[in-house]
Amino acid sequence: MYLPREEGQGLVEYALILVLVALVVSAVLMILGPQIANVFSKLTNGLQTT
Predict the structure, then answer these.
(1) CA distances (Å), 33 to each of 22, 37, 39, 41, in order?
(2) Predicted local confidence at residue 10, as pLDDT
(3) Number of H helices, E strands in the chain
(4) CA-based Rg of the chain, rounded to a whole angstrom?
(5) What is the pLDDT along the chain (50 residues), one digit of tens a residue?
(6) N or C: which end of the chain has fewer CB within 10 A?
(7) What is the pLDDT of residue 1?
(8) How far is C-alpha 48 from the geometric centre of its chain's CA atoms?
(9) pLDDT value for 49
């Protein structure tokens, strides 16, 4: 009985999932980036005044 080797297929699936996660993280950072920078700016300004 011949069993096909599917090791490469699993690797490709993991790579596609990794790329999808990276794209989602990039999109979230692009959307929320200015807001996060604003929070850190307020924090540093608050620490400098004390």
Answers:
(1) 15, 6, 10, 12
(2) 84
(3) 1, 0
(4) 22
(5) 666 666 667 888 999 999 999 999 999 999 999 999 999 999 999 998 76
(6) N
(7) 60
(8) 31
(9) 76
- One-letter amino acid at 24 equals V
Sign of the dihedral defined by the CA atoms of residues 13, 18, 22, 28, in that order? positive
Of 9, 3, 49, nearest to 41 by C-alpha is: 49
Q: Is-above-0.70 flag for pTM?
A: no
Q: In one letter, which amino acid is 39?
A: V
Which amino acid, one-letter code, is at 40?
Answer: F
DSSP annotation of 5 reads: -
Could you tell me which of 44, 21, 41, 43 has the C-alpha nearest to residue 33?
41
